[in-house]
Amino acid sequence: MKRKEQIEQEIQKTMSCFKNAKKIEAGPFFSARLQAKINTYETNKNRSWGKIFTMEYLQPALLLVFLLANILTATLIIGNNNAESLSRTEILKKLAEEYSFQQEEYSLLTFSE
After folding, report:
1. What are the domain boundaries of the chain?
2. 89 Cβ partners below 8 Å, 6+ apart?
């Protein structure tokens, strides 16, 4: 209960600080300076070269580059002539011939012990 009472006291202190707080007055030219900064921000935002390098334009461009790269890669892989490419068994047979392996000694297709 003691902890709960302490929390209640802290809440009451905080609430009294809000009630007794002074109102902050802005300077006489505050609104003019704020409006000038907003206008400066808007003019910088609307510049043509600055607009190109924002993420709004870079993300679609990068997405397009990645998409084209993937399409190109897929066409190269699919378009690869299967008659020229060697299968795994053909490669293993050529290796066996080159290094004079006997197929009875080694099982080239399975790697079980």
Report:
1. 31-80
2. 108, 109
Q: For the residues of 28-76, what is the DSSP string, one character each? A: TTHHHHHHHHHHHHHHHHT-HHHHHTSHHHHHHHHHHHHHHHHHHHHHH
Look up the pTM and report it: 0.32
For CA atoms 105, 111, 112, 113, the dihedral sign is positive
pLDDT digits (tens, 9 = 90+) for 43-91: 766 665 666 666 777 888 899 999 999 999 888 877 765 555 667 778 8
Amino acid letter, 110: T
Q: From CA 93, how far away is CA 26, in angstroms rounded?
A: 87
CA distance 91 to 73: 24
Q: How far is CA 4 from the centre of its chain?
A: 46
